[in-house]
Design brief:
With 450 residues, this protein is mainly alpha-helical. 74% of the residues lie in helices and 0% in strands. Bound molecules: tryptophan (TRP).
């Protein structure tokens, strides 16, 4: 059995967790949701969700992980021996596996678009809807790029907690923040960008419906990597002196800033080009943006080249740091439960996950007709994971920390054995017991009825 490592530094712990949180959810899903839900009013509600529900739930996952220093399944088994709570751990590992299998597909697309943009292929005047459809329905190419992305993820995981996850996060996260800075400046300097700013900053509360609020809660969970034990696993590598409350606030802040800045990159650019739809859905970054890059930079092709190259690099880095967290939560379990080496555990996870990934990828082409409940394989995986297991997992985590765990243990863990002050503990406890579980249940029911 290999010895269990911790993250070597506090900043490493923060950056790795922030890496998990900052992902396709921020750069791809968040702008899509903002576009679909009317702009600034959605962002306003989203911020409330992060502060009131997201941060307390993240603290709960952190305390479960750090207290047990074990993979997610063992963590629940240790805290509640012989009880059914361990099902939450099992669901967490299972669903991380499931999400990873389709996450790598979109990540593979990102890799392809990065290569295309570096090769100057996104600078021609083409029908990018057609380009996108041709690519995703091709039986080989997306599988290949997905596999290449899985290879990258595997490489980092196989190197271990400190020299793989921590080191790569310390490198990739600052780079990611730097790229975002450049892109925001580029985007603002486009003529007509102020329209996009208005869309992001001026809330129109008449657009506020229940479904908007519920989308905001769902987006907050996905974006913060909550409810699936990903952050539990990372927290199991936190040191005894890591401040859980501060780390949760830091990680949530980075994640939210990145999401909003992504909006600031995308919308001014999109609005600067007339006739392009803001509610373009998932195709926003793969179809709309290449169009925007071309039209907006038609007089400055070099700037367009730089902008699109940096944009897809940003998306790739964000995807990679999240994929390693999904991979790690499965690998940590395999490694500790079956007493195999990290390399073997990681290889088993990579290969089996890739097999599922191939199915997901092909569901955009040759397997497109294979459907269940009207969804293809990709959609089915995404639906099962994010619409069913994720909310249930969130509720269970709240009930577990709020009602099952001893209050003393919770308070002790959050204050590092009483050495730190946590003035808002009672508020935290109230939220975890009463507010968060009901809020998540509301989202869940609404999603099921929708
Ligand atoms: N939070 C990541 C994103 O924004 C995705 C992610 C990673 C995730 N790990 C997770 C989502 C665990 C839910 C649960 O893209």
């Amino acid at each position: 059995m290999e010895t269990r490592h911790n993250f070597g530094s506090k900043i490493g712990a923060v950056l790795a967790s922030a890496g998990s949180a900052v992902g396709l959810g921020n750069v791809w899903r968040f702008p899509t949701e903002v576009g679909n839900n009317g702009g600034a009013a959605f962002i306003f509600i989203y911020l409330i969700c992060i502060a009131v529900i997201g941060i307390p739930v993240m603290m709960s996952e952190f305390l479960i992980g750090r207290n047990t220093h074990a993979n997610t399944i063992s963590a629940f088994a240790k805290l509640a021996p012989g009880k059914w709570w361990r099902i939450e751990g099992v669901a967490g590992v299972f669903v991380a596996f499931l999400i990873l299998s389709y996450y790598i597909v979109i990540s593979g697309w990102t890799l392809f678009y990065l290569i295309e943009s570096l090769g100057g292929q996104l600078q021609a005047d083409k029908d990018y809807g057609l380009v996108f459809n041709d690519f995703v329905s091709n039986p080989w190419l997306p599988v290949l790029t997905g596999a290449a992305f899985m290879g990258l993820t595997h490489f980092i995981i196989a190197r271990g907690v400190q020299s793989g996850i921590e080191k790569s996060s310390k490198l990739m996260m600052p780079l990611l923040l730097f790229i975002i800075g450049i892109l925001v400046v580029c985007s603002f300097s486009m003529p007509g960008s102020s329209e996009g700013l208005r869309f992001l900053l001026k809330p129109d509360f008449s657009k506020l419906k229940a479904s908007v609020i519920l989308s905001a809660v769902g987006q907050a969970f996905f974006s913060l990597s909550l409810a699936m034990g990903c952050l539990c696993t990372y927290a199991s590598y936190f040191r005894a002196d890591t401040k859980l409350t501060k780390t949760a606030v830091g990680v949530s802040t980075i994640d939210t800033v990145v999401a909003i800045l992504s909006g600031f990159i995308i919308f001014p650019a999109v609005f600067s080009v007339n006739g392009v739809n803001v509610d373009a859905g998932p195709g926003l970054v793969f179809i709309t943006l290449p169009n925007v890059f071309n039209i907006a930079f038609s007089h400055l092709p070099l700037l367009g080249y730089v902008f699109s190259g940096f944009f897809y690099l940003l998306l790739l880095l964000a995807a990679l740091t999240s994929a390693i967290s999904l991979h790690e939560s499965v690998t940590a379990y395999v490694l500790e439960a079956f007493h195999v080496s990290r390399r073997k555990a990681a290889a088993a996870v990579s290969v089996s996950c890739m097999a599922l990934g191939v199915l997901c990828s092909l569901s955009f082409g040759v397997l497109g007709d294979l459907t269940l409940f009207g969804m293809n394989i990709f959609e089915l995986f995404d639906y099962t994971a994010s619409k069913i297991i994720l909310p249930i997992g969130g509720i269970i985590i709240c009930l577990f920390t709020g009602w099952y765990l001893d209050r003393k243990l919770v308070e002790n863990e959050l204050t590092n054995g009483g050495t730190l002050r946590f003035r808002l503990f009672r508020l935290y406890y109230f939220i975890i017991r009463y507010v968060a579980p009901f809020a998540i249940a509301a989202v869940f029911v609404q999603e099921l009825l929708a």
